[in-house]
Amino acid sequence: MPSIRRYPCCPTWPHLVLFRTLMSSDHQPLPRVSFRDLPRRYGGASAEERKQQRRERLLDAAFEVFGRKGYKETTLRLICAQARMTDRYFYEHFESLDAIFLQVRQRLATELMERLLQASARPEPDPVLLIRHALTAFFEYVKEDPRRARVLLLDAMSFGLTSTEVAETRLNWYAQLIGGRLKARYPNLPPQLDFQLVASGFLGQVTYVATVWTLRKFDTPVDQMVDHASYAWMGLHHWLADYDASVPIRSAG
User: Which of 48, 69, 147, 204 gives 73 a disulfide partner, CB atoms 3.0 to 4.6 angstroms apart?
Assistant: First the structure.
């Protein structure tokens, strides 16, 4: 059996050249970099990204628990258990149960507002049809997920957990949208008509109708709900039409 010739383990020639270059006196040493100076990433996410992910998980968990059990039966520990987090991470983002409830409600209100904007963006000259489009979007949004109705309609109203600033912003948007369409159709509207008060009354009416519908387990089809909720708008429409027709047309001269 021929013998195997063994060679001592030694660096290859290119490695020796690189080593001598690095060790030469005229070579500038490489800067020292501390790992503490580098942002830590776990699972491909930075610390700030993980923090945001935890917040989203808590909001998703809160929506699930609030929507399933209701505000009265919900506790901080139930939300943390749903999110699989400890209390420490909860208080990293929210100071109380009310605080996270308001955030969940605000998220839903923003989604609903986007639906209403899409429904109201149609070039519809008839204000009543425009209202029907918006009402259809509203009732469909509530019925699609009963948890939304629980948070937006039942608990927020029952326990007074709503933001006055958010409600005022939503009301102003609603009044401006409807008021602009009505003024364009009826140029002779009475100057004393306060569209914010009008919109407030109709918004309360629609909200209460939707609340009753929720308590009745959505037993009425959406199109019939739109019919019932739009009766008041139809009355306003006819009143404005009669008023507009009764105003004498001013001559151009």
Answer: 69
Q: Measured between alpha carbons, how far is 98 from 93 in angstroms, rounded to an integer?
A: 12
Residue 118 near residue 138, CB atoms below 8 Å: no
- Does domain 105-246 sit in CATH 3.40.50.1970? no
The 10s digit of each residue's pLDDT in 74-114 is: 999 999 999 999 999 999 999 999 999 999 999 998 899 89
Residues 110, 116: Cα–Cα separation, whole Å? 10
Helix crossing, 164-185 with 97-120: angle to 10°?
10
Separation of first and last alpha carbons in the chain: 125
This prediction's pTM: 0.73
Give the Cα separation of 21 and 223 in Å (integer): 82
